[in-house]
Specification:
Blueprint lengths: L3 E9 L2 H15 L5 E3 L6 E11 H15 L5 E12 L4 E8 L3 H16 L13 E7 L4 H11 L5 E7 L1 E10 L2 E11 L3
Antiparallel strand pairs: 1-3, 1-8, 2-6, 4-5, 4-7, 5-6, 8-9
Helix pairs in contact: 2-3
Length: 191
């Protein structure tokens, strides 16, 4: 039996956002670019990626997250616009951005970072940027140039609202068919 579990903390997105994002992916596939696209059921807004966590520590992670968000009021985020890391010109990760509610997402991330650093998990070195990953580009080439042109058309498109009323602590198992995410705990924002 494995002693560690790949773990992350995220906000599940509303079905309307998943549906619109899936339609966009269907259109972007036509570019022919070599991209690993995210399955609709796996779409989420990551708050913190922990990596491999000892099974014995999962309970402590869940408790720390529950406690740090219990006094936070639920809020709504607006999913809007397409972007890419490191840049739209050289996409490696294609994502949908968070417009309305981005500051609240940053504050939520900071609460989680603080709570988890207090129990021994390192803080993320990069600045937090709330986003919904659509896909990861595997190779560059002419098809990617076509993909970039398509992405530019969606820089201002709204994909809808998502209510942030709980965080989910997920396990992530990487399989040849793609990742499988399973909830290990929930932390409600009760205000």
């Amino acid at each position: 039996m494995k002693s560690k579990v790949r773990t992350f903390i995220a906000v599940e997105v509303d079905e309307g956002v998943r549906s619109r994002a899936s339609k966009l992916i269907k259109q972007l596939r036509q570019s022919g670019a070599d991209v690993t696209w995210v399955a609709p059921e796996n779409m989420h807004l990551t708050i913190k990626f922990l990596g491999d966590v000892d099974y014995r520590d999962v309970y402590h992670v869940c408790r720390a997250v529950e406690e740090c968000v219990a006094t936070v009021e639920p809020f709504t985020v607006e999913i809007r616009g397409v972007g890419a890391f490191p840049s739209l010109e050289r996409p490696r990760v294609i994502w949908l951005g968070v417009d309305l509610g981005a500051a609240e997402m940053e504050a939520l991330n900071e609460r989680v970072e603080s709570a988890l650093s207090a129990i021994g998990f390192p803080r993320e070195g990069r600045k937090f940027h709330a986003h919904l990953t659509l896909g990861r580009v595997r190779k560059s080439g002419r098809a990617v140039e076509h993909l970039v042109a398509m992405l530019r058309e969606y820089q201002d498109v709204e994909f809808g609202p998502t209510t942030v009323d709980q965080l989910v602590i997920f396990s992530s198992e990487l399989l040849p068919t793609g990742p499988v995410y399973e909830p290990m705990g929930h932390a409600e924002l009760r205000g």
